[in-house]
Design goal:
With about 290 residues, this protein is mainly α. It folds into 3 domains: about 35-95; about 100-155; about 170-290, Tetratricopeptide repeat domain (Serine Threonine Protein Phosphatase 5, Tetratricopeptide repeat, Alpha Horseshoe). About 85% of the residues lie in helices and about 0% in strands. The termini are far apart.
Length: about 290
């Protein structure tokens, strides 16, 4: 029986030791996990503590800045108060001055204002007089310009036409031509054109038909329709080669081309006037005009 008990003890003893070893390993693992957890929490606390320290430092700097700014503003405010106090004192001193001095200053200001007002009126009067002089000069200038334009117009237009002797014209022919010419002289170029056209239609081969054709060209020239003027002058030159208006027609053709910017044709026509009609009035005019064309 005792022997059996010993055997039983030797059997359960290793089992107990084994079980005791297992329990100890589990405890160690649990303890390690607890230690790791504590270290993690400690690390987190350290980080949080560092963040708090940084915030505290920033708040301290901000507090210092605000304090400095407050002191600066306080000093400025005190300075302004001192300035205002000085101004108030000066104003009090000014109020204590005798009223006589204030009156003198007021009179001095009024005198200066009066002088300035007189100067202003004087300048206005001078300005009005100057404007009147300018207007007078402008009127005179306009008159001179008008005379210049009239002179240029008279220079570019043929001389006033002298009608042939009455015995060389029939009464009806002479009257019709005279009416057309007088219409032109009045500046009614449209009316003159129609009347000269009627004259040519009624008297196509008359001595004055070439003249009438020339004046039709003139009605267009005076209206600055230079292209039509050139064509009408050409009719006078080609249809009435014996007309006394040929030199004038050639010369006015040249001027029309010049107005259109065609200097080449203008020069050629002016030379043609000089060559074909060297003793005519238009020849001298053509020479002078050639000198001006560059």
């Amino acid at each position: 029986m005792k022997k059996f008990g010993r055997i039983k003890m030797w059997i359960f003893l290793p089992i107990g030791v084994f079980l005791l070893g297992l329990a100890t390993a589990r405890d160690v693992q649990t303890l390690d996990r607890e230690i790791d957890k504590i270290y993690s929490e400690l690390s987190a606390l350290r980080k949080e503590n560092s963040s708090l320290e940084n915030k505290i430092s920033a708040l301290s700097d901000e507090n210092q800045r605000l304090r400095t700014e407050f002191l600066f503003r306080l000093e400025n405010l005190q300075s302004e108060i001192r300035t205002l106090s000085t101004g108030v004192e000066e104003y009090k001193d000014y109020l204590k001055r005798p009223s006589k001095e204030i009156g003198r200053v007021k009179e001095d200001v009024e005198v200066r204002l009066k002088v300035l007002e007189e100067k202003r009126k004087s300048l206005e009067e001078k300005n009005i007089a100057q404007e009147e002089k300018i207007k007078e000069m402008e009127d005179r200038l306009k008159g001179v310009e008008g005379k210049i334009k009239q002179a240029e117009l008279e220079k570019s237009s043929p001389a006033k036409e002298v009608l042939p002797e009455a015995k060389r014209l029939s009464a009806g022919m002479g009257d019709l031509y005279k009416v057309a010419y007088e219409t032109f002289q009045r500046g009614d170029f449209e009316g003159a054109r129609k009347k000269f056209g009627a004259f040519i239609k009624q008297y196509p081969n008359a001595e004055l038909s070439g003249n009438a054709q020339f004046w039709i060209g003139e009605t267009y020239y005076q209206k600055k329709d230079f292209e039509k003027a050139i064509l009408e002058y050409e009719k006078a030159i080609s249809k009435y080669p014996e007309s006394s208006k040929i030199p004038a027609a050639l010369f006015k053709q040249a001027l029309s081309f010049l107005e259109l910017g065609d200097k080449t044709n203008a020069r050629n026509l002016l030379r043609r006037v000089i060559e074909r009609f060297p003793h005519s009035e238009q020849s001298e005019m053509a020479k002078k005009k050639l000198e001006t064309i560059k």
